[in-house]
Amino acid sequence: MRKRTWSVGAFSLLAILVAAPTAFADGNEDPNKTAANTARNVSRQARSVAGYAEKVAEHYDANSDKAAADAEGTEEQGADEGTADVVTPAPAPGDAPVQQKLNGARDGVVTIERNGRVLGVGSVLAGDGRVLTALSNLGHGNDLDVRYADGSVSRVRVGHSDRAWDVALLVPQNGRWKHGLRASRLKPAELGSNTHMFGLHDKKVRLSRTILKGERTLIGGDSALLRDAITIGSKLHSTDVGSPIVDKNGDVVAMVARACAPLETAEGEAVCSPVPYGVPVGALRAFLSTAPANAVAPAPWLGVRGIADQVGTTRGVRLLRVDPKSPAAAAGLQGSPVREHSDLIVAVNGAPVSNPDELGTEINKYAVGESVQLLLLGNGKFREVSMTLRAAPEKPDAGPSGRSRDE
To answer: pTM of the prediction?
Structure first.
């Protein structure tokens, strides 16, 4: 009877954004009846969609090209005419519980950088580690990093994007940030000025009060109609784009992005007026649900193949093979079909493992770049070794990472 052997790596699951929020009701009508007027005019303006699309494309490309330059400035965007620039840094004195929750939310906000230059801000998904931000912040090129609240930096790649809503999902390539933001269950149209955002001011993430004024129809990238776009009543800086808008609990109500307000001149010419707006949570959740399967952090790789075994009363994973280019090999682990010449992995960071499934589960609790300590039994003696986990190569010698197979 053949024993089942396993290739131990890790198997990352695609985590979707947090608990489902309640559906948004229709927003409060804008004092200028913008949403109502837009709805009545959509069919009449259908003849101008091509013109709008051209304007949107020009606006989107322009923002992509100058996103990094804007991050250094203080350009103000958006806000309806006559509204005040609200930059109140915190809730009123006495709101200690609210302030505490908002301070906690700050830990889930990151800055997006390229070669040390700040492009904008983003938010970490709770229990997930990936980052949501505005696509128009990123400009062109790779070499993107996120800087966390403690100053640590992780290289990221764009795992998913949506030009229509101006949203991007960034996937960290090392480490796993423990603090993240969750979706709010509150209706944004009812919150008014009881919301805050985390924008960039003097290259630092700062909290400011934000006014939401209901929903309207805007035009996004590729001429898409954004029917549930949230109107922001506060004037914003270009560096605020990508910021999460949070309620008093620090939960996400929307994310600041860029779009165009459809206008028409007296001569019937299509005009695209660039405005920041709030991407509703429903749209963010729909965006995440369409993320490709590979839009996840690389799985941590140990690089061993083994079977369940026992020496006396000590159970563990007997190593049959160690990939010569793996973290396990670098740490000196020994694998062999000959029992006397191989190590038995007994525990990972103090957690006992008695079979390859348990070993894979424990390793998968850590991220690429993190260190683990293994308790081994070999040559009749216990010893401990530490190693830094890496991502698996495309074709590791030890077989596919994280999947079992019979041999």
So the answer is: 0.68
